[in-house]
Design goal:
- The protein is mainly alpha-helical.
- The protein has ten helices and three strands, in the order H-H-H-H-H-H-E-E-E-H-H-H-H.
- A three-stranded antiparallel beta sheet has the order 1-3-2.
- Helix 1 packs across helix 10 and helix 8 runs antiparallel to helix 9.
- The longest helix has 39 residues.
- The chain is globular and about 60 Å long.
Length: 303
């Protein structure tokens, strides 16, 4: 038990120490680009993604650290509901925004027919409306966290067949049908976008392979190095995305089919669920030269 406690604490502390500064750095670079009126649609999506990832860590990783340290009496039904609601909405937005990033990158790097280009331009023009719609949609889907959340105690979370445990809080559904229906909606939504990401990843890999084969014989078909570099960065995000949320979706389906599940199983699901929000900022910073330049400029001015 002591070994599991230490591993649990080290894992989540590491995610918090990596994820919070990383996402704040991306948000700083994004705000700086807005102030200079020098940003692209992909950078808008990256900025929103950093905000969503930061909220995921603040509402999931930080409370888990407090719970591991024994500081859990601060939660009541209202604070549990608000914390889990913000977490679930932010997690869903992280999935959606990564999907959009992969889609826009495919439009940029892959030759498309005129109809697809017109569709891409139309989506870019409606990007603010799309963002607001996504926030509203996910806010509606995740409302069960506001309605049925309560602090995790020995008496609150005894109905294990209709309860989702989040260590510091739990969500107790009024009946098995609502519990199962809510889980199916979450899994279906996540698996749909995971499938889209798998297709995007496979297509980008095919483009890289085809580009490497053809560039030696047809120089005119070369892709701009900046676009190729950005596409490889997005490809790395997609791999982390598929690993993290893919495992989480598998755990979700297991949770729906097998009840009750052990707390160690819940801890593992929470860890993999938080990996993307913590690790992806590091990849973005390491592969995005514009963000690197912005951070170097900020460090230079502070000295």
């Amino acid at each position: 038990m002591q070994v599991w406690f230490i591993l649990n604490m080290v894992a989540f502390v590491s995610l918090d120490m990596i994820g919070i500064p990383g996402n704040l750095a991306i948000l700083y670079a994004f705000i700086n680009a807005i102030c200079q009126q020098n940003f692209t649609p992909s950078e808008i999506i990256l900025g929103k993604l950093a905000l969503a990832n930061l909220l995921v860590i603040l509402t999931r990783g930080v409370p888990l650290i407090l719970q591991i340290l024994g500081v859990h009496t601060m939660y009541d039904s209202l604070s549990c509901g608000i914390t889990l609601y913000i977490y679930c909405v932010s997690r869903a937005m992280s999935i959606f925004l990564t999907s959009m990033l992969g889609y826009f990158q495919c439009l940029l790097i892959v030759p498309c027919p005129p109809r697809c280009l017109r569709l891409g331009r139309s989506l870019l023009e409606r990007l603010p409306s799309i963002m607001i719609s996504l926030w509203c949609f996910n806010g509606l889907v995740c409302c069960t966290r506001l309605l049925y959340s309560m602090p995790r105690t020995d008496t609150n979370c005894t109905k294990e067949d209709i309860t989702i445990v989040y260590d510091f809080c739990c969500v107790v559904f009024p009946n098995r049908l609502l519990y199962f229906g809510n889980g199916v909606i979450f899994v279906t939504r996540d698996m749909f976008f995971l499938s889209l990401m798998t297709i995007s990843s496979g297509y980008l890999l095919f483009v890289f392979w085809k580009h490497g084969k053809m560039v030696k014989h047809l120089p005119m078909l070369q892709i701009k190095q900046t676009e190729l570099h950005a596409a490889k960065s997005v490809m790395g995000l997609l791999v982390i995305y598929l690993f993290s949320f893919g495992l989480d979706s598998i755990f979700w389906m297991f949770n729906l089919c097998v009840s009750p599940v052990s707390l160690r199983f819940a801890d593992a699901r929470m860890f993999f669920d938080s990996c993307y929000s913590a690790i992806s900022p590091m990849l973005i910073i390491l592969t995005n030269r514009k963000i690197q330049a912005s951070l170097k400029w900020a460090i230079g001015n502070s000295e």
